[in-house]
Amino acid sequence: MMTGWQFDVPTTGSKHLPPDARYMEALSSQGYGFEVAIADLVDNSIDAGAKDVVIHFLRDGEQLVSLLVVDDGRGMDEEALDVAMTIGGRQSYDAKSLGMFGTGLKSASLSHADAVTVVSTTKRTRAAGRRWLMEHAKTGFQCDIVDSDFAQGLVDRYYDKPITWQGTIVRWDGVKDFPKHGGSGQTDRYLQRTINKLGLHLGLYLHRFLARADFNITIAVEDVLTGTVYLDFGVEPLDPFAYPVTGAADYPRRFSAFIESLASQVVLDAHIWPPKSNLDEYRAVGSVIDRQGFYFYRNDRLVQAGGWNNYRQPEQHLSLARVAIDLPEKLGDVFRLTVKKSGVDTSPEFTAALEEAVDESGTKFAQFLSDADSAYREARRRVGVTRKAVIGPGKGIAPEVRATIEEELPLLPHEDTISVRWDRLDNESFFHVDRKQRTIVLNKHYRKAILGGRDGSLNDAPLLKSLMYLLLHEVFEKEYSGRREKDNLQLWQSVLVAAARSELERVVDDDS
Predict the structure, then answer these.
(1) How far apart, in whole angstroms, are the C-alpha atoms of residue 294 and residue 386?
(2) Can you list the domains of the chain with their CATH numbers?
(3) Three-class SS of residue 266?
(4) CB 56 within 8 A of CB 68
(5) Would you tell me which of 76, 328, 332, 489 could form a disulfide with 81, CB atoms 3.0–4.6 Å apart?
(6) Strand partners, 337
(7) Would you write out the chain's pLDDT as a tens digit for each of its 512 residues?
(8) pTM for the complete prediction?
(9) 3-state SS assignment for residue 350
(10) Taking Cα atoms as reference points, which of 459, 404, 419, 410 lies closest to residue 284?
């Protein structure tokens, strides 16, 4: 029986407990987004000193078959390759490396593919390769050794594009995100959507590297049988601080926050964007809420794009405020980078330090927030029109459209958003207003005609859904419709049903 509290737990020895094979399955279920996973692979290329990285989508006619990330970095011999493919295997990361945990290659790859093959060559060694099959990884830590002739052949395939004397190839097979059936233009639509998102993500998170003259990322699409190159373009940097003119005098301004446990200053470069910017550098980052706040960098790699990290709540009036922070070499307990490098967890000590942060004139960091708020409000005042606050858009409306609506219209606080979805309705109705569920329901009968025969998705028909939101959002602000509003709803139903039927007839005529 314990007689008093013991501050240290006594032990009698230790025991080796190797991981269960199912650990591999857990490792691959960390919620890596597709773009985040690819960015993790490019990080490895940068750590290897690569100057050129090619992200290669390979297709066989209408079917996508593989995805490869190829670089001209230092490459690996067989011993280094074994370390790289070991779960938790740690290479000798230095302070300037982008890698940290030794899990990114495996967990990022097996989150999205049934098999990951790594082939590498150095200036002094022939090509060697290893492969993880997810089905084998679940039952034991058995990594396949790739046939040396095949490995050399894969390296030769990418000779001078970009591999010359050295380099590494990461190949994904059985990519879960690829369309199962490529017909009806599905593959082309998938590639257009995915490559656009991937280019924006890499352009943003690696913008400091891409701004250098000696580093390039290329995204390409090729048919493996015909050799036809469908796409080949370089990723452009997307600098979240690249505005042509500042949004407020005296900005950007540099503040310093002293972190006592690190015994060092953390520099806060505060920026105020000009109002109503249409540049991708401003809008492509995310919604009004998402793109304001802290932009953390580690070794020039963006690891968090926006967010206030418990310092304050985001709000529309601070949508112009962005702060660049280069993380110190030693993070201590103040900053903790997520495994996916898609965010930074900060301690209360950082929040407290922000309260005391000052610039060289002694002005506190809080003044920056006030100045950003004033810049936003002044721009609204100059317009001369105060727009009425609305219930915000929700699911079913494309994120980029939601972001624009949130930028253009003030939102009513503490209100559930208005969703838009397709469902079965009487053919005499084009839409239904579901006040209780805060949903605009569109008649599924007309969906294919409106989409021009294309397959539907959650955020399809952005033009139609935007117009329906603008037409109907005020209806949700009332408990019931008055006589005039009921008449308008009936008018809109009649006109839209007639237009939808006309679209339907055109589709039938085209098919016949």
Answers:
(1) 29
(2) 23-234 (3.30.565), 253-383 (no CATH), 399-511 (no CATH)
(3) strand
(4) yes
(5) 76
(6) 344
(7) 556 787 777 767 777 666 676 666 666 666 688 999 999 999 999 999 999 999 999 999 989 999 999 999 999 999 999 998 887 665 555 666 676 545 668 888 888 999 999 999 999 999 999 998 888 777 777 788 999 999 999 999 999 889 989 999 999 999 998 998 777 688 998 999 999 999 999 999 999 999 999 999 999 999 999 999 989 999 999 999 999 999 999 999 999 999 999 889 999 999 999 998 889 999 888 787 889 999 999 999 999 999 999 999 998 899 999 999 999 988 888 999 877 677 899 999 999 999 999 999 999 999 999 999 999 988 877 766 678 899 999 999 998 888 888 878 888 888 999 999 999 999 889 999 999 999 999 999 999 889 887 788 999 999 999 999 999 999 998 888 889 999 999 999 999 999 999 988 877 665 55
(8) 0.78
(9) helix
(10) 404
Give the pair of three-digit tokens for residue 168.
Answer: 């590494």
Q: What whole-number distance in Å separates Cα of residue 123 and Cα of residue 367?
A: 55
- Residue 422: phi, psi to the nearest 5? -100, 140
Q: Determine the Cα–Cα distance for residues 509 and 288; give it in Å rounded to an integer.
A: 43
Tokens 């390409």 appear where? 220
